[in-house]
């Protein structure tokens, strides 16, 4: 399966590289970093530069992963970005959000009527973006059909492992967690930051 990770300037690195590490260690997953911007050079929060593919190069029916980061504060008002994101979400087989990436997807109204969570330090701001989403504060991650959302930063790793467990097998997720020497949280309601 293709895992398409959407990048934009000022994304949060662990929101991307944590889940990416999970999928890179699972069989039959191909990870692609892509952007809606041109030229395709992206700078993370704290100045990590990446060369990435343009959106025209991805399999739109793949898994869409949306990270958070400081840029989400302005991107939630960028109509062109939100239109493109909504179109991608509608075509994706699954949508996964990490941290304030849920604010971006919520701003497209793709999440209307669905359950979701987000970073607890930004929870009040994220939930103000769209009150039609059923926001769940005490959750490390939330699953609603083909939508997976996680709390802040490192919770994206647990969400990605839970995703593997759900669509592949529990032992596959456990094996990946062991391989990356990660103490996996298996209880989605175990959220000490709420």
Annotate the secondary structure layout.
Blueprint: E1 2-7, H1 13-24, E2 30-35, E3 41-43, E4 49-51, E5 53-54, E6 63-66, H2 72-75, H3 79-91, E7 94-97, H4 101-107, E8 115-116, H5 123-129, E9 134-135, E10 141-144, E11 147-150, H6 155-167, H7 170-179
Parallel strand pairs: 1-2, 1-6, 2-5, 6-7, 7-11, 8-9
Antiparallel strand pairs: 3-4, 10-11
Helix pairs in contact: 1-6, 4-5, 6-7
Helix content: 25-40%
Going across the biggest sheet, name each strand in turn: 5-2-1-6-7-11-10
Question: Which class of secondary structure composition applies to the elements?
Answer: alpha/beta
The total count of strands amounts to 11
Number of helices: 7
**Would you identify the regions where 5 or more consecutive residues have pLDDT less than 50?**
none
- The gross shape turns out to be globular
- Mean pLDDT, to the nearest integer, reads 94
Largest sheet: 7 strands, mixed
Measure the end-to-end span: 33 Å
SSE string, helices as H and strands as E: EHEEEEEHHEHEHEEEHH
Integer-rounded radius of gyration: 15 Å
How much of the polypeptide forms β-strand, as a percent range? 15-25%
């Amino acid at each position: 399966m293709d895992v398409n990770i959407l990048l934009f300037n000022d994304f949060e690195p662990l929101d991307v590289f944590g889940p990416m590490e999970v999928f890179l260690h699972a069989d039959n997953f191909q990870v692609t970093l892509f952007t809606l911007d041109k030229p395709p050079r992206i700078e993370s929060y704290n100045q990590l530069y990446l060369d990435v593919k343009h959106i025209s190069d991805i399999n739109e029916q793949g898994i869409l992963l949306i990270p958070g980061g400081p840029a989400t504060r302005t991107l939630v008002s960028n109509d062109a970005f939100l239109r493109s994101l909504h179109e991608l979400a509608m075509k994706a087989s699954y949508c996964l959000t990490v941290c304030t990436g849920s604010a971006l997807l919520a701003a497209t109204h793709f999440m209307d009527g669905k359950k979701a969570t987000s970073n607890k330090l930004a929870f009040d701001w994220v939930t103000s973006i769209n009150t039609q989403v059923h926001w769940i504060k005490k959750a490390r991650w939330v699953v609603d059909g083909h939508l997976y959302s996680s709390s802040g930063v490192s919770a994206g790793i647990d969400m990605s492992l839970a995703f593997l467990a759900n669509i592949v097998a529990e032992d596959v997720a456990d094996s990946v967690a062991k391989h990356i020497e990660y103490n996996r949280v298996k209880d989605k309601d175990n959220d000490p930051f709420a």
